[in-house]
Amino acid sequence: MKRSYVHGYNTDESGRLEDQARTLEDLLHHDTRYAAGSRVLEAGCGTGAQTVILAHRSPGAHITAVDIAADSLTAARQRLKALNSANVDFQVADCACLPFEDDRFDHVFVCFVLEHLVRPENVLQELRRVLKPGGSLTVIEGDHGSFYCYPQTRAARRVVRCLIDLQAAGGGDALIGRRLYPLLAGMRFDDVRVAPRVVYVDPSRPAWEEGFSRNTFIAMVSGVARAAIDGGLIDAATWRRGIEDLEATIGKGTFHYTFFKAVALKPT
Amino acid sequence: MKRSYVHGYNTDESGRLEDQARTLEDLLHHDTRYAAGSRVLEAGCGTGAQTVILAHRSPGAHITAVDIAADSLTAARQRLKALNSANVDFQVADCACLPFEDDRFDHVFVCFVLEHLVRPENVLQELRRVLKPGGSLTVIEGDHGSFYCYPQTRAARRVVRCLIDLQAAGGGDALIGRRLYPLLAGMRFDDVRVAPRVVYVDPSRPAWEEGFSRNTFIAMVSGVARAAIDGGLIDAATWRRGIEDLEATIGKGTFHYTFFKAVALKPT
Searching chain A, which residue's CA lies closest to the CA of residue B144? Predict the structure, then answer.
């Protein structure tokens, strides 16, 4: 079931990294395909990490990808160019106030966006407005509170907690995955279906150890080192130990994380 | 794929409860079937909750079910009688010192047992001894640290923590699911494969809300109320609030728990 996926650079090493990325891509996206001719909105596309996946998996769909950051869209356009894909239009727009008429899109897709918002309800309401009756909304989010590992130390727990607390301090919610169902059901979407997408890593799955544990999760946690230490959430020594403890699971322990994927319909 | 499953009582209500039980049964056991004529050991069968499932799903296998508690075996025999199943022999035995010669069984099955043991390695070594080379060991365990919910309160977290701490105080490990891989790989089993079996519950899954959240998980936590309060782990008011908070997720929030199933082979 593996399919070729062209990122535009093809040395052996990048091929290996692509294999790893595909593992997570399959887990999250294998069941998202839009019909040829359908109009799809990707809200909050950032630098296009998900856009290339959408464009590749639904080559006949007309995808409109919006983000509020013009710089990100420049990067996204570069990414898409390498894919030689003509089915994506990029547009600068605020997801809470979209420049589209009501009922414009057959489908709306939003991935790793709601976690950053103070009021995700506002964006969801706007996405619902531009979605046509009977159209589908797909939401993918993580939940950092779903993480655990073995061995699990106090320091390892603390560094992950820093990431959650920093997100909360910024008005976001790193635990949003677990509340996708009540969030969507509470906003008059129909037929809300949420399914966990579980990452389980042990030494029998080296591609996941490198591709997810080290290069996705630990890299993401490591990215807030400065903010966590300078913000007084943790001291530098504990931080270092926590990251080392997370890394120490690779090759001998286990690593656990759950994403959530929701699909809901706008009532007809 | 639903199959009829006769527990021996058949009012409407028990039928509903059986449906719920089957949901979890399918999740944990759907891929365990033993060939006709094969010799299977169930180690630590208790009152036979899993034995009836094994006997039903592998009607041609010869199952030997052992437990150290004679009283439990009496209950297990009663359960099996209702199934009208002739393929199970019960025997009182200590899993750390089994009355069987080396290499006797084609397969060994152990479910919800290792979590209670101070030295699960000792029992695994004994199970390995009575397993024939090339034979399979199947282990199913939970991991209470995998639990989370929405809404999640401090009191809800604390009552679950009490269960984990009581298990630890008794020498067990309620977080054993996450370490099945290193445990088995470290004991010279081959081809160790561990897969998470994830329970995700939201209001679109009412059978899981009743069958798992309320009647399995919250019931299990509630069972240690006396021990937790009398043992000074928590005060009675916080305990009550924690249980109420867990119950409050039903009908509006979400509930998350992960079991782990491992299959490994004895080297030939």
Answer: A148
Q: What is the pTM of this model?
A: 0.91
pLDDT value at residue A21:
57
Element (H, E) at A31: none
Tokens encoding A214: 């080290």
Q: How far apart are CA B82 and CA B193, in angstroms?
A: 34
Which regions of chain A are under pLDDT 50? 1-17
CB contact under 8 A, B182 and A256: no
3-class state of residue B212 by DSSP: helix
Contacts of B156 in chain A (CB under 8 A): none
**Closest approach of B195 to chain A, Cα-based (Å):** 7
**Minimal CA separation from A232 to chain B, in Å:** 23
Angstrom distance (rounded) from CA A88 to CA A16: 27
Q: If residue B266 lies in a helix (H) or strand (E), which one and from where to where?
A: none
Least confident of A194-208, B13-27, B143-157: B13-27
What DSSP state is assigned to residue B97? B
Task: Indicate whether this complex's ipTM tops 0.85.
Answer: yes
Minimal C-alpha gap between B173 and chain A (Å): 13
Q: Which residues contact A207 (CB under 8 A, 6 or more apart)?
A: A19, A20, A23
On chain B, the residues whose CB falls within 8 A of the CB of A177 are none
pLDDT at A84: 80
Query: Could you tell me the pLDDT band of residue B255, with boundaries at 50, 70 and 90?
Result: very high
| Amino acid at residue number B121 | E
Cis peptide before A151 (omega within 30 of 0): yes
Radius of gyration over every alpha carbon of chain B, rounded to an integer in angstroms: 19
Minimal-distance CA residue of chain B relative to A257: B146
- Rounded to whole angstroms, how far apart are CA atoms B22 and B29? 10
